[in-house]
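Annotated sample (chain length 138).
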Amino acid sequence: MHNPNNSCCFLVTIFLFFSYAVVTGANKGIGFEICRQLASKGIVVVLTSRNEKRGLESVQKLKESGLSDFVVFHQLDVADINSIASLADFIKSQYGKLDILVWLKPSFFNALDFLFFFKNSNLNFYSIFYLIKTLYYI
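Output written by the structure step:
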């Protein structure tokens, strides 16, 4: 008799085996942990950070914990269109697709200054929209 639970697990396994993810601002905190969790499930994770040194150090920590086949670094400043385009070119040439995008807000946001920040900074709606649009069409 067919067991629907077995089919579900099989589909999830196939999805995870061929999955690629980008996590923005992932050199510390929750972003780092998201990278660790995704990579531990067999998902290839592109850990991104504005600061290249900190990003590479974070990737090294993940590699030392046995995730070397699943984590790579790419510099990304979400407020810089050229940086976004560079990431998109990297993903397209290395993997050919992107399955998961985790955009994390900067850690200095809180509920009260969220809209003020977007109105008065380089990191605005259009930067985030461009990031999502560019990576979606890979």
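Annotation: The first helix runs from residue 4 to 17.
Annotation: The chain has a mean pLDDT of 80.
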